[in-house]
Amino acid sequence: MAPAGGERRRVGVIGLGIMGGAMAARLLEAGHAVSGFDIDAAALERFSERGGTACDSPAHAAQGAEVLLLMVHDEKQVERVLDGPTGALERLSSGSVVWLGSTVPPASARAWAERLAERGIALIDGPVSGGATGAEEGELVAICGAGDEALARAGFALRACTRHVYHVGPPGAGATVKMINQLLVAAHSALTAEAMALARRAGVEPLQLVEVVSNSAGQSRIFDKRAPRIAVGDHAVHVSIDTLRKDLRIALETAGQLGVDPVIARSVLSVLDGAAQAGRGALSDTTLIDSYLGPRTPG
After folding, report:
1. Where is the signal peptide, in residue numbers (predicted)?
2. Which of 34, 65, 115, 223 could pair with 12 in a Cys bridge, judged by C-beta atoms 3.0 to 4.6 Å apart?
């Protein structure tokens, strides 16, 4: 079925986890032909059940794609899926666009833009914000470092997955702005857990606290999203502790290169590292409350 008001386009998606899987679903719902790859067989099966073409390698997913969306964990995985033994690079056609939706260091985004340009392939350094809910609802924010032509060519894919596309400069600029955003996300997430732990110890009714703070000067978007879930014990993984650790390390490394002393960010990283060392790295960032109260008792 062709999308309303336009032709059916070909998209590849590599990384079908919480974010990539939901974005692939939005592209399918928009009527596009979507091929996808993930190392997780269950993720591939869910994608196939939604109508996507499950592929056995990144190269297969990239074959014939006008836009290739990468939603993998980090820069090492980007390297692997693009230029590994079964990487996508050799199957991408000149004139195609790689939408790098992963959060990577700015230097990595710039380097990939140069490598791809040598093959006539454009890069959109376009990390996204909005979490699992935003991805499922097509309400993500894309923070894009790219040329105007690349954004125009990939516009159909961006529109299917986002509510706002911010063009912040050339490749590298998107990663820079996302890095700063993630510094704030990590700090607000840890501080929300700390506040909710203090409330619990002080005997404050958690949902009432959520309502009060959400209408007061201490309010933040992260508090509004995380605190209600902490209050009712909803710890489904929307963003993992390990993901926040990875993103915050990018910010700390870049801050050091630029001569900024990120005192608060270092403190937040110590909280995240402590949770990971306790075996909770793969869990939701809402479980950071356990860093203050101790582990929850199952059941």
Report:
1. none
2. 65
